[in-house]
Structure prediction request, 370 residues.
Amino acid sequence: MVKKEVVGSTRTIQWKCVESRIDSKCLNYGRFILSPLKKGQADTIGIAMRRALLGEIKGTSITRAKFKKVKVSHEYSRIVGIEEPVHEILLNLKQIVLRNFTNGVIKASICVSGPTRVTAKDISLPPFVQIIDTTQYIATLTEPIDFSIELQIERDRGYRVKHTNNLQDQDGSYPIDAVSMPVRTVNYTIHNCRNGNEDEEILFLEIWTNGSLTPREALRDASINLIGLFIPFLHPEEGDICLKEKKNTFTLPPLSFKDRVSELKFWEEIEELKKYTDKKIKELDKLRKKKKKIEIPWDCLFIDQLRLSSRTYNCLKKSNINTMLDIMNTRAEDFFQIKDFRTKEFVEITLLIAQMIDFLVILYKNKRST
Prediction:
């Protein structure tokens, strides 16, 4: 129905939200369409918007924790009276979803007495910072002790990895891997249609957020960020920018003997992987004969969940390969018929299938015989 409406529309490009739902407090979903677009425009917008949604939108997270009133020697130590070790508490703090639009470092704290179950609602925050899900778990106090943590909250974008050896900083605090990404997943698909004698495209954009932003807000923020990146090109060229000439530039030489040896080694490793996979398939066949068949809904395992590289994901999506079942039903030669699908992508798919076969072998080995 949407397709018919778009085909009959004018040349003015318009967008619309065709589906919106809240799956949980920390998972919102939105599906949008943009049309009508000329041939090739949907890919241009889809790729740019996906990158902007995942990497350019700011989010708020807990970046540091300092335990008070107790001595903690390292991240993997345990505190008497607390069920979880320190590193598990830090991981639970990392999962807390916050909503905040102010920049700068924000201080927060947790001060409770046991025995009790500590959740996100126990965090004392400034009024301008909101906890999305107050039931998110932090720790369990099994004894009547005082549990006190000082927290540091920051607003940033992307993913910040801590650079420590699981030890405290000089002030006694522990850094936390900060995930400042309100958008969890982005997926786009392109539908081709005709308007008279003209080919047109419809862009479908799916956005999942962590609840700190709605998909509509994420789409707006990503659009504003993209526009901001291109604005400098609208201004006159700066004449006083001086780029130093690189004197030590050189052209790449032809493939050396060493490089050819590396390439040969690469293909040998691929052959070894193929032999290993064939061996595991035979082992799986034997286990299937001895034990009751395990039904795996491969058609419900979507490629969005497989953590594929962007290039591999886009190649599969364009070829209407949407699930693990589709991948398993596709022959090796058919993969190479896909546009822009290279050896590197084939290796990634081969490794994925090998992992799935390993997973099945483990399942069958742990299953009782019939």
About this structure: Residues 257-290 form the longest helix (34 residues). Residues 1-9, 249-261 have pLDDT under 50 and may be disordered. The domain at 257-366 is CATH 1.10.150.20 (DNA polymerase; domain 1).
